[in-house]
Design brief:
This protein has a domain at 1-11 and 45-105. Helix content is 79%, strand content 0%. The chain has five helices and no strands. The relative contact order is 0.17.
Length: 105
Amino acid sequence: MEQPNMSYIQSMSGGDKAFEHKIINIIKRELPEEIATFQYNLKSEEYQKAADNVHKLKHKILILGLEKNYHTAVAFEDNLREGNANLHTEFEAILMNLTNYLKTL
């Protein structure tokens, strides 16, 4: 599985560690709530709402350097909009990977 990294954030920051820290703290604060909302909507079979949640989450996936996983998120979002949740397991694995990575920062 692709591993999260700080490359994109570092390229945006131009070496500004305070900026990097601020971005990471925002992601750490927002991610758990966004995941919980996504999981609730998916469990409730509110696929359009879940697709909106995935739309927000996919940007965090990209910011944390998971380019291949970003494409999975895009496909999952599209599938949800069609009422299909078949990439759920793969997407949950991506979210777990992100969550575990953020715990190390």
